[in-house]
Amino acid sequence: MTTNVDTLNVMPLDLDTFAGSERFMAGTRLGAAFGRGIKAYLAANYPDAIEHFKTALIAAYVEGDEKSQIYDRERAIIYLYIGNACAFQDDWPTAQREYLESVQTDPQLAEAHYNLGVAFGAMRQIDRAIGAFKEALEHNNGLYEAHFALGRAYQMLDDAGRAYIHFTSARELRPYAGEPLYYMGLMHQAHGAHELAQRCFAEALRVEPTFISPSVGPDEVLVSKSEQEVANWYYRLSDDLKAQGYDEDAKRIYEALLKWRPTEHRARYLLGNLLARARRWELALQEYGRIPPQDRYYVDARLRISAILRFQGKHREAYNHLYSTAKLRPNDGQVFLQMGKLLYDLEKHHAAMRAFERAVQLLPKDPNAYYLLGFMYTVLGHESWALAAWRKAVELAPHAHSLRYDLGYMYTRRRRYDLASREFSHVLMHWPDDIETTFMLGTCYKEMLEPAQAIPLFEKVLRRNPRHTQALYYLGACYLQVGNSSLGKAYLRRYEHLINQQEQLPQKGRAMARGGSR
């Protein structure tokens, strides 16, 4: 069984067209020609129908009385019927031209776009067919036929996720139609997922007992694939659905896979992730908890359990989970990294430091581990150790600009302005509008007695925040250093004026007026 069948196997749509247009249906050449065309069309006498419809179109142009006037929608529908008459004779190129006339005459006619897609599909132009079906849905998202046809088109392209989505949409529009379920079954069967396929075939007969398969039946020769190939199909389909935002459908696919193979713990882990993303915490915890210690996803699952418990404020319980995991996996650095975070939350700072130290031993290439260790060293007052840890983190992640800022700030605390300026300059190359980094670099130049380089930086800060008092003070001092006393004194007077204003503000207001901190 293969999904790459020759055609889309979908049919053009007819319309209940001229209700309300009886005004031109009697006593005119147009009305007579159209009436004869409909009779011939319903009798499957398509050549005569085409001639009569064409006569009707000509009459609409030739006859000038009011009764012979037709709207664009009506003219577009006549083109659509001519296209259908050609299609039923397998003259798809001519049908395509007529459908194009229809959509050009009335671009809002969803059925004409759909029929154009059918013509493209019959001529093996699947990409153009998809475009036409999508256009039909733009004008009528409730058009069952367009959703079903898109499912078939994506099935032909082996795009399982989009096919599944449109077959599902078709089912929602017509709950008692067996055809979408049948083709979903064929899609599963083609990839060896026979249990899932049989469920679709059975459901198709349940909702539509008289359904007859349009091509081959589900009892034909089955595809033989290894269990791993079949499992990969489930994963691929779920990934496609998740990528397009259909998490609930992906969840059902994981559940079907787990029903077939309960030991497929990768699926259990991914299902837990979906549930956690939907904030269905208890269900997620249950799925993660079913993954046994010997499985490769065990540690990842335990880390997720800990993260959920930490989010719920259950820090002690989260730590206990990690501690028991660490006893089973004493060489997993991620476990110790997360233990360190929890110990910090529990205000056990020395224990957190030891956990981070163990983490960097096990994860020597992880910049985040070194960063957290450095942070913990600063909390405990070991600034020189923190500098060493952060230098290593920057070495491992040279593009971690926020880390470079923290490293530069630490250098300024130790009055190593030359090293700090190097880090701040690097940050500004990538974040040129970051005001606090600009201010810190200006401060470094001021302290290194390079006021000419500091002045434009402080001016840039004040353009963005004219009430940044520290920048005002340093800018005034720098202008005095370069000999421009008038500007220097002006900025210092402005600084004093702002300080006097701040003394009359509430405490919170004064902090904001000072420019704030990063």
TrEMBL record:
InterPro entries associated with the record: CellSynth/LPSAsmb/PSIAsmb, TPR-like_helical_dom_sf, TPR_rpt
Does the UniProt entry include the keyword Repeat?
Answer: yes
* Start-end of each TPR repeat: 110-143, 144-177, 178-211, 333-366, 367-400, 401-434, 435-468
Q: Which domain of life is it from?
A: Bacteria
UniProt keyword annotations, A-Z: Repeat, TPR repeat
- Does the entry feature the keyword Magnesium, yes or no? no
Q: Which residues form the signal peptide?
A: none
Instruction: Please report the name of this protein according to its UniProt entry.
Output: Lipopolysaccharide assembly protein B
